[in-house]
Design a protein that fits this description.
The complex is a heterodimer.
Chain A (H helix, E strand, L loop, with lengths): L2 H10 L23 H6 L4 H9 L2 H8 L2 H51 L2 H10 L10 E4 L5 H8 L5 H16 L7 E4 L15 E4 L1 E4 L9 E8 L6 E8 L9 E3 L5 E3 L8 H8 L33
Antiparallel strand pairs in A: 1-3, 2-4, 5-6, 7-8
Chain B lengths: L1 H31 L1 H12 E6 L6 E2 L5 E6 L1 E6 L7 H12 L3 H9 L7 E8 H10 L4 E5 L2 E3 L7 H4 L11 H5 L1 H4 L4 E7 L5 E5 L9 E3 L3 H17 L4 E8 L4 E8 L7 H6 L3 H4 L9 H10 L8 E4 L2 E4 L2 E4 L7 E4 H7 L2 H22 L28 H4 L10 H12 L3 E3 L4 E4 L2 E2 L5 E3 L3 H14 L17 E11 L2 E15 L6 E8 L8 H4 L1 H14 L6
Parallel strand pairs in B: 2-10
Antiparallel strand pairs in B: 1-8, 2-3, 3-7, 4-5, 4-6, 8-9, 10-18, 11-12, 11-23, 13-16, 14-15, 17-20, 18-19, 21-22, 22-23
Classes of the chains: A alpha+beta, B alpha+beta.
Chain lengths: 312, 550
């Protein structure tokens, strides 16, 4: 070291540092070589970001300020409010469950009551009391209908007139306010018992039941018609029910293949459908013979020793 | 400054001490006493409620309810908690319709030390009234009850339900799994006032609705006809079945003596004779021999047979019911007049093996496969067990046991063109249609048509049931009268009278069988006992089901 160099060192007040050696290269680590891109993708910046967030001046200002108290208080109140709401919800669910159970039980009871009221035994007894009877097979005649008749009936149907609607309303009002129906006479009108022989699978059923009450016996019958045509017109049926408007039996509907429905016109109107269906009536002539020869009933059984079966 | 710092120090010390005490207490509650405290809390606030599942309804073809479940409760008592048994009994008696003395005795002397059942399945309204009394120690437990709105309607078919809610007989038994729902088990947390604040767990799932092929109105009418017939002839039993021969759907099934479906004990003791009664069919069985011989080409409807006054089979000379000399009858006439000798001759043409084979083909000797319990197979002896006279018995419906439903199923095969199909009574479950049972062809359509024409002769002039007429309809059927076996021998006082047939004869839409067991009024023949009932049923059924004449 020369005097100039020593003087310079004294001036600066520092001892001269020894010449630096370059740092040694990192020791090789066993294992697969690390891809520089993979190393770059590591979240190396995350701790820095968290630290930066914690050390952020805004947060510093928030924590040191009075707003922090308000925020914490609000959060606590929110938690309490949520718990209360949860309890209230649970309570409501509990009450709703109880209500559901109660309503289900009541529904079952009501359904049972309806079933009892609708029971066949009760209805049959009630119907018999009212003088209603099932038609006997001879009272039901089957008319022949051509495939186009139902459509023609629909075309000829007309809506009821205003007078008819008014009459129907009056009749309905009378019916509602009337005492329980006690018909003086109920008759089942049997059409001629000349059953038809179905041809081409098209038949029409006509049931005629007339019920009269003393007050309305002279009002004239009202005709309601039901006409149903299966798709393609392969089979058609039509039935005609006749009754008095006041007795409440005149309401009827007509349904055709095209789905058109028309109400019958009480007391004054006869639907065209009814007319059409009726005019297509073709009584046929199949006759059922009622032979009366006695069978084997009159003869005592003759059995062999081992026992034989009496014939029929 | 020093003072204030000292005060703060003291304050901190006190807080630290209090916190420490609180921590110790919390530790004690949370660890040492936690189990006891939890169970106490749960007992007070958490209850598990089991809700019985409503049993599925049974409805008819029109959707009318035949069986329905109604909410009901059992009234129970915890005797130790009932402070004043006499007062409790007095208050409950008018509601439960139980005498005060009995109620008081039940409470004071319970069947179990801490439990007594005071009433079973009280209606919901009554249960609510009991709850309103708020008697300590008196509690309600759900126990739904089964209601049959029509009481007697098809009671043996619908069956009954036991106290445990399971089906005991009939449809209730056969479809118990589908009708039974899944009970709900809910955990309810209540607050201090007993109000539920949290409910969790599955709710009850109702059983599925079973849709029958029965028509309630037809069933009721058939019930009434069968009851009237049973009473008129003072019969031991009577039964009737109405079915659709094309599909095998049972439209009505009646039994007599009738029972009230709402009386489980009576229903449990009764039997569905339509499927469970084995009887010797008599002449209705003649279609087996004739149908078999027709199918095998051994005879034709107009094949003549010489009918002697009696026919010798082994040691017996078997006669017809009418005394006659030698005569000639065609196959059709043999069936129309129900000639025993003619049927035996035809049976002999088939031989024992053929006869046995055709009995089995017609479904005899096996359960019909109907979806009802107690579907009896009947009894058809194998040929190896036949005696020398068996070939003289079997063709005329003796020596074999059948059920009314088996006979109806065999005739349905004739009616529908030759297909033997298991009858069924359930059309859908929970809205899902049941699959139609598979059919087996046992007759060609031509032979079935021949048999239909021959059976039509039974109800025509000269036939054994010529009195049976329904205006507008051609009828086909067969009468049957059979001696009843009593103590191993054929009785001469007890008979089975039956009639089976369908209409319209050549396009059958409906079939019915009526069987009367042991009519006691002197009339014994199918034509005079069972056929009139059959006619009444068909009189109603044909227009009710809107079957066109033919």
């Amino acid at each position: 070291m020369g005097p100039n160099a020593a003087g310079a060192a004294v001036r600066s007040g520092h001892a001269e540092a020894p010449p630096l050696r370059p740092p040694p290269p990192p020791r090789r680590v066993s294992g697969p070589s690390r891809h520089p891109r993979a190393a770059a993708s590591r979240p190396a910046a995350s701790p820095g970001l968290v630290v930066a967030l914690i050390d952020h001046p805004w947060l510093e200002r928030l924590v040191r300020g009075r707003a922090w108290i308000a925020i914490v208080a609000t959060a606590l109140l929110g938690i309490v409010a949520m718990q209360v709401a949860l309890l209230r919800l649970g309570s409501q669910i509990g009450n709703a469950t109880s209500a559901v159970n109660a309503l289900t039980a009541r529904n079952e009871t009501t359904r049972t009551e309806i079933a009892v009221l609708e029971s066949n035994r009760r209805l049959s007894a009630s119907s018999a009391t009212s003088g209603l009877v099932y038609p006997s097979p001879g009272a039901v005649t089957y008319l022949q209908v051509n495939p186009g008749d139902a459509a023609r009936a629909v075309r000829e149907m007309t809506p009821p007139s205003a007078a008819a609607i008014a009459a129907a309303a009056t009749a309905a009002h009378d019916l509602a306010s009337a005492a329980p129906l006690t018909p003086a006479a109920t008759t089942t009108t049997a059409a001629p018992s000349t059953p038809s022989t179905p041809s081409a699978g098209t038949t029409t059923a006509t049931t005629t039941i007339a019920a009269t009450t003393p007050s309305t016996a002279t009002t004239g019958a009202t005709t309601a018609t039901t006409a149903t045509t299966a798709a393609g017109g392969a089979a058609s049926t039509a039935s005609t029910t006749t009754g008095t408007a006041a007795s409440g039996t005149a309401a009827g509907t007509g349904t055709t293949a095209s789905g058109t429905t028309a109400g019958a016109t009480p007391s004054t109107g006869t639907t065209a459908g009814a007319t059409a269906a009726t005019t297509t009536t073709t009584p046929t002539t199949t006759t059922t013979t009622a032979a009366t020869s006695s069978g084997a009933a009159s003869t005592a059984a003759t059995t062999a020793a081992g026992g034989t079966t009496p014939a029929g | 400054m020093a003072i204030s710092q000292r005060r703060i120090g003291w304050l901190l010390g006190v807080f630290a001490l209090l916190l420490s005490l609180a921590a110790v207490r919390a530790l004690q509650l949370a660890t040492l006493s936690s189990g006891r405290l939890s169970s106490v809390a749960n007992a007070e606030h958490v209850t598990t409620v089991t809700t019985p599942a409503p049993r599925g309804s049974i409805v008819d073809a029109n959707g009318d309810l035949l069986a329905v479940t109604e909410a009901a409760d059992d009234v129970t008592a915890t005797p130790k908690q009932v402070l004043d048994p006499a007062a409790a009994a007095l208050a409950l008696s008018p509601l439960l319709h139980v005498p005060v003395a009995k109620l008081e005795a039940d409470i004071t002397n319970p069947i179990a030390p801490d439990w007594a059942r005071l009433a079973v399945q009280v209606p919901a309204a009554t249960a609510a009234a009991v709850a309103k009394l708020a008697i300590p120690g008196i509690a309600l437990s759900p126990d739904p009850r089964r209601i049959y709105p029509d009481d007697y309607l098809g009671a043996q078919v619908l069956g009954g339900v036991g106290t445990d809610g399971n089906g005991l007989s009939g449809i209730e038994l056969e479809y118990n799994r589908q009708l039974t729902g899944i009970a709900g088990h809910q955990t309810v947390v209540s607050d201090g006032q007993g109000q539920p604040i949290a409910v969790s767990g599955p709710t009850a799932v109702a059983g599925r609705t079973v849709h029958l092929t029965l028509y309630a109105a037809l069933q009721q009418y058939t019930d009434s006809v069968v009851a009237a017939t049973g009473e008129q002839f003072r019969a031991e039993h009577a039964t009737a079945i109405v079915l659709d021969p094309q599909t095998g759907a049972i439209l009505a099934m009646s039994n007599w003596p009738r029972v009230n479906a709402n009386d489980p004990a009576a229903v449990g003791l009764s039997e569905n004779y339509a499927v469970g009664l084995d009887y010797e069919p008599g002449s209705t069985f003649k279609i087996v021999a004739i149908g078999g011989a027709l199918s095998e080409g051994l005879i034709a409807p107009n094949t003549p047979f010489t009918i002697p006054p009696c026919i010798q089979v082994a040691n017996y000379c078997i006669q017809d019911s009418e005394v006659h000399g030698y005569e000639t009858l065609t196959t059709s006439q043999i069936l129309a007049r129900s000639s025993n000798i003619g049927a035996i001759k035809i049976g002999k043409l088939l031989g024992p093996g053929g006869m046995y084979d055709w009995m089995r083909r017609f479904g005899f000797g096996s359960p019909t496969g109907v979806d009802l319990p107690d579907d009896e197979p009947g009894r058809v002896l194998p040929v190896s067990q036949w005696s020398g006279s068996t070939i003289g018995n079997v063709p005329i419906g003796q020596g074999v046991d059948v059920t009314p439903l088996q006979v109806a199923t065999a005739y349905a095969a004739i009616a529908n063109g030759g297909l033997l199909r298991a009858p069924h009574i359930v059309s859908s479950i929970g809205g899902a249609p049941e699959r139609l049972p598979k059919a087996t062809r046992i007759l060609t359509p031509a032979v079935a048509a021949q048999l239909r024409r021959m059976l039509e002769g039974v109800t025509s002039a000269g036939g054994t049931a010529s009195e049976i007429q329904i205006p507008g309809y051609t009828l086909a059927g067969k009468t049957g009268t059979a001696n009843k076996v009593v103590d191993g021998t054929y009785s001469h006082t007890d008979y089975y009278a039956s009639f089976v047939g369908f209409a319209p004869a050549q396009n059958p839409q409906i079939e019915a069988i009526v069987m009367v067991d042991s009519p006691q009024t002197g009339e014994i023949y199918g034509t005079e006992v069972a056929a009139p009932a059959w006619q009444k049923i068909m009189d109603f059924a044909l227009p009710y089901l809107k079957i066109a004449p033919g």
